[in-house]
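To the wet lab folks,

You asked to see what we're planning to order before we commit. Fair enough. Below is the target structure as tokens, and below that is the sequence we designed to fit it. If anything looks off to you, flag it before the synthesis order goes out.
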């Protein structure tokens, strides 16, 4: 895809998530139908499902040849990464959406032959749209975002999955003590935004492809590392423990989390 086609794709993605965000804000006080998925902390609502259907219908109209992986099941059964692939998370931070009506995001990542191409994350209630990719740079609404400074773990705030911290997985209590502090935001998309803005130096969580895809495009464009915690490259077809961080922080975290000598 050349730069003009990529810019058009980014524009369309921004339009889709903006319209979906406006729809959610319009219905924010409507009664919700909430169901549990894998556990009582894993929720889905009628608006997650509706938003995914709307986003996927919009994608199919304009990019009928693309494959689409969606969290709530309206997409394709994607088994390879050939061609243009969209990863759709219609509401990221559904627990926040239900309990706070705040701190949730809409995310779409577009990849070509497995390579990150365009990512879009909308902080729905704040109406802050982060978008970009390697050919475009990264923007917050219309303002370019510069590369983040390469802070170490001791100098930065660290975002983590609450379950990992609660059960001290990967020596996360030691990671907590070594960092400048920990923050648990309840949405991978909102965590990614903190990294893009340079407000946090790392995020560690168990994530699915739709949780990772959009933010990975932008984080890598700004020079951050996105990989499995053990250092393996991400597999965009499966879930796993993912570390997103500045380069010095990656080394600091792996040394503690995996007991690696430095
Ligand atoms: P979700 O709200 O789209 O499900 C904190 O819960 C973060 O982890 C959210 O971004 C959430 O995305 C994601 N997450 C991934 N797997 C999850 C699970 N099994 N239960 C709850 N949240 C999950
Ligand atoms: Ca979910
Ligand atoms: Ca998610
Ligand atoms: Ca979701």
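Sequence we intend to order:
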């Amino acid at each position: 895809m050349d730069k003009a086609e990529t810019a058009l794709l980014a524009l369309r993605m921004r339009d889709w998530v903006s319209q979906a965000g406006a729809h959610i804000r319009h219905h924010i006080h409507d009664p919700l139908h909430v169901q549990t998925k894998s556990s009582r902390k894993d929720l889905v609502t009628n608006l997650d499902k509706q938003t995914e259907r709307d986003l996927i219908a919009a994608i199919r109209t304009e990019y009928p040849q693309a494959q689409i992986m969606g969290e709530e099941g309206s997409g394709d059964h994607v088994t390879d990464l050939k061609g243009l692939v969209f990863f759709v998370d219609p509401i990221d931070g559904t627990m926040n959406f239900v309990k706070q009506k705040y701190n949730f995001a809409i995310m779409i990542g577009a990849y070509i032959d497995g390579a990150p191409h365009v990512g879009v994350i909308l902080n729905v209630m704040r109406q802050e749209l982060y978008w970009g990719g390697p050919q475009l740079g990264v923007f917050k609404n219309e303002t370019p975002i510069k590369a983040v400074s390469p802070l170490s773990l001791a100098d930065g705030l660290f975002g983590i999955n609450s379950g990992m911290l609660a059960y001290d997985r990967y020596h996360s209590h030691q990671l907590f003590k070594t960092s400048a502090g920990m923050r648990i935001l309840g949405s991978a998309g909102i965590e990614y935004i903190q990294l893009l803005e340079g407000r946090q130096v790392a995020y560690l969580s168990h994530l699915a492809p739709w949780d990772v895809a959009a933010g990975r495009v932008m984080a890598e464009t700004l020079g951050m590392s996105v990989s499995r915690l053990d250092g393996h490259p991400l597999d965009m077809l499966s879930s796993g423990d993912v570390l997103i961080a500045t380069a010095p922080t990656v080394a600091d975290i792996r040394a503690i989390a995996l007991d690696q000598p430095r």
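Structural context that might help your review: DSSP finds eight helices and 14 strands in the chain. The longest strand covers residues 84-92.

Thanks,
Computational group
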